[in-house]
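Record 1 of the preview.
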Amino acid sequence: MWVPQTSNTWPTLDVWFFILATIPSVQSKEPLRKKINNPGRVVNVSSISAHYGSSVVPIYSASHAATEAFMRSLAKSLLHKGVTVNSVATNAIWTPIFSGVENSKDNKIFDAPLGRGVPDDVARAIYFLCQKGSTYITGETLMLTGGKIVFDD
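->
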């Protein structure tokens, strides 16, 4: 399985948690600071590991789970202002960071039944959640897994 090239020391874990959980939470609070009187959207990008865990990088899963919990609370806070707050959780999305990473029997990072996801897949999901037709969706997480969760053996 692919693992980021970091050590599992506490300072590193603190930094991971800060980047993955604290920063998105602080940025998402901006609508609370402003006097918003019109509908708006907040969309967080998360990971399916927030829901299914990871034995390899548990702090990654925990930080995304914390961010999603914050987003659900923020959805409650902004409901009266007409602002929807949602998350898009993905499995591994093919980006240059994964160049050189290949699927193998031991590494199934891109083994979704619909093939590997690309950034445009995530962008289209975010775009959908920002459209007028999604005004009834808030406090939810849209899972982009390419069928991996449904067909995982």
